[in-house]
Design a protein that fits this description.
Order of helices and strands: EEHHHEHEEHEHEH
Largest sheet: 7 strands, mixed
CATH superfamily: Zn-dependent exopeptidases
Shape: globular
CATH class: Alpha Beta
Helix content: 25-40%
Radius of gyration: 18 Å
Number of helices: 7
CATH architecture: 3-Layer(aba) Sandwich
Distance between the termini: 48 Å
CATH topology: Aminopeptidase
């Protein structure tokens, strides 16, 4: 497989680092030609995630991968261990979409060797960039807050029952960040009582949040999974909906601004993170 890849990195001047692992739509031709029509629809993209967060916190660092999650899921354990044992989910190199339908033509699924090659080519560089940026930010500010940006369709029976709340906050049951980080995020989301918010429900934080969120080291992590109806149309061609997005962006801006202010004030130092 020949493919020139590098993550997209914007180095900011803030203790906040935004990670966006699922907004890319690039698929190498050698893989694209093996997808069936379901795979080529790319329906499970975190559509417009960069646009949703663009400009909300000007100084924040941003790390994105341009590669689609069907090539490799940058928010999965590189060892292939399930984040949600016993529940339907997709794998490191998905074989199905979120509705449980195969995405490859018969017999065209990746081998174990190809999965490893994709891991080394796409997954590893993305996370190397996150490691480097978190360390740079921590060295400068004494603390780093990794905010993992996600979105998903509101109704996916294969993954969860009913309609997903708009804001789904994940901290792996409070383990990945200081209590204040979780509370700031909850309070900002619940400021609008008309919008449902849940914490550590179906989405407790993916591998990125769980792997990097170690408050005792000065690195905190939190995941925000936003139901796509809050900012876009949830069917092809997956158009952005500015009139909906405006309200959602205001909530997200409030979260990020407060997190930055408190981080700069030293509120998330090791002495302030005990539960």
């Amino acid at each position: 497989m020949t493919y020139s890849f590098s993550p997209l990195i914007k180095k900011g001047d803030s203790p906040i680092v935004l990670a966006q692992p699922h907004g890319g739509t690039d698929v190498p031709l050698s893989i694209w030609d093996r997808f069936n029509s379901v795979g080529q629809a790319l329906a499970d993209t975190d559509w417009h995630i960069n646009r949703l967060y663009d400009g909300l916190l000007e100084n924040a660092s941003v790390i994105q991968t341009p590669v689609h999650r069907y090539v490799i899921d940058a928010n999965r354990d590189p060892a292939g261990v399930s984040l949600y044992p016993g529940q339907n989910t997709t794998t490191l190199c998905p074989l199905t979409d979120f509705d449980g339908r195969p995405i490859y033509r018969d017999g065209q699924e990746p081998s174990e060797d190809e999965v490893e090659e994709r891991r080394a080519t796409f997954h590893a560089p993305y996370h190397e960039a996150i490691v480097d940026e978190l360390e740079r930010v921590r060295q400068k500010f004494g603390v780093a807050v990794l905010y993992d940006c996600h979105s998903i369709r509101s109704n996916i029976p294969f993954l969860f029952e009913g309609e997903l709340p708009v804001f789904n906050i994940g901290t792996n049951i409070g383990q990945t960040c200081a209590p204040m980080i979780e509370q700031i995020t909850i309070d900002a989301c619940r400021a609008d009582a008309s919008v449902e918010t849940v914490v550590n429900a179906r989405f407790k934080g993916g591998w990125t949040t769980r792997h990097y969120g170690k408050p005792e080291t000065g690195i905190h992590a939190i995941q925000m999974e936003t139901a796509q109806r809050a900012y876009m149309f949830e069917q092809s061609p997956w158009a952005y909906a500015p009139e909906h997005a405006h309200k959602t962006r205001a909530t997200l801006k409030s979260i990020l601004s407060q997190l930055e202010a408190q981080a700069l004030a030293g509120a998330f130092s090791s002495a302030s993170t005990s539960r």
